[in-house]
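Issue 218. Parser rejects a valid record. Input:
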Amino acid sequence: MKWNLEYATNELEAAGFEILEGIEDSTLTRIFDVGALVYYLKAIPFDFTVKKYFNKLVEINECINDNGYLDLEMNNHRFLLMVKKSKRN
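Output the parser choked on:
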């Protein structure tokens, strides 16, 4: 099973809902400074520390300085469905 707009639409229609609108998107996270990246990573529950990843953070900071930003390709797939209960239910 892949949880996406198509799957959710099919499930809701099978349950008797009318689909009013559905949109789907995948987003890119753009970081403009290494401090924002550190803040973001500290919010994620894993073993991130500045000390442990200092050398990589220096590389990332150089990349941001050269390009003006760093794009993080993560699975930010989202969808939104507007539905209403069918009158037949």
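Fixed in the parser; the record now loads. The CA atoms of residues 47 and 64 lie 23 Å apart.
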